[in-house]
Request: fold
Amino acid sequence: MSRILLIWLIIMTSYKVNAQTDLYLRKILERNKDSIFNQILNYPQTYRLQIIYTEINRDQKNLPSFKDHYFNYDPDLYFNPASMVKMPLAFLALEKINDLNIKDVHKNTTILFDSSESFHRSLYKDTTVSSGLPTMAHFIKRAFLVSENDPYNRLYQLLGQEYLNKNLWNKGYKDVRITRQFMGLPQEQNRITNPVRFVDEQNNNLYSQPAAINKDSFDFSREIKLGKAHYRRDTLIQEPFDFTKHNNLSLKTMQQLLQSVLFPLSVPEHQRFRLTKDDYHFLYQYLSQYPSETPDPKYDADTYYNSYVKFFFRNKSHTMPPHVRVFNKVGWSYGFLTDVSYVVDFENKIEYMLAATLYVNSDEILNDGKYDYNDVGYPFLYQLGQTIYQYELKRKRKFVPDLKDFEIEYEKRDPSDTRPVLKDVDN
Reply:
């Protein structure tokens, strides 16, 4: 253990602990003797580690029940959700389109973004799709497959800051606060979103939405500052980084959001999204499809390998077990790594949910681009994923699950497609 890391551990373990851990999950995790894995388990507050393992059992009618197990779970322990916010916005965007109930307006309809403010970025073409036309379906694909950022901004702009927060609160996700696009805008500019239009093949307007302005206030009374210093552009500021007004939602809320779409009948009706059967199939496909399988966008399969956004299975081989699919969303930023997953093994007939987040930034400087992802974060999440997966392989079930609802016919690339691949996207 390096001297810097040791000092960091000593300082950080002085933090107040107010977290939920159950003995059942602790015993499962303690079976893994990997050194990095145990280093983080032994200092959960240092790494701001939180884990939720959800055991799924089916009855004789194949109806699932869910039992959550926690390790150091604390809804008040802040972590930056990063790209995790793309998931609820994708669900809400599909719901909003359905609620519009306008003929010929659907997720595959061309959507255009105008500008009404100097900081707005208009959009009339999408070069990542063969048609060149932006659609909400394609934005969601890009947000899920390799976690691209601009699609998130477009989801945010379609919904508007007030609409997206109020609708998530009304569904019972009370700790959600989504206030920022990924554009480096100040707080007040994030309140004003672009005018949006859906158009037909002849570019005729089907629906126009004016610029939206959120005049409601947020509760920023709880101050959240991390680290000892941070960079602002190229200048090192010898002060903690201020996350007080950043996006925020708990790990449990993220797990519930994913569960509400994968298992809508398992949550109260008000927590569900108003989606069509085709929407559900679409989401299941792109939450679990690999970039290498996807013809459009045509991502470089070496850069964006199969386990690229499957942190619980991401290792040096970059491969995935052929009989396993992971329906998930991940996020990484400021030294935080997060994954919320539903894992299915079709060969061994097992299923479970696993959610985790941790912070790996031993120099305590933020915005320097130097985080311990590769040496600490990714290896830990892989070990965690494999620990739960191996446990699930041996866990006895009264009824074998029928998993046909999650069997997807995935896309295949055409070997004769000579279009250049995408190797460098903003994510």
Remarks:
- Residues 373-394 form the longest helix (22 residues).
- The two ends are 31 Å apart (CA to CA).
- The chain has a mean pLDDT of 95.
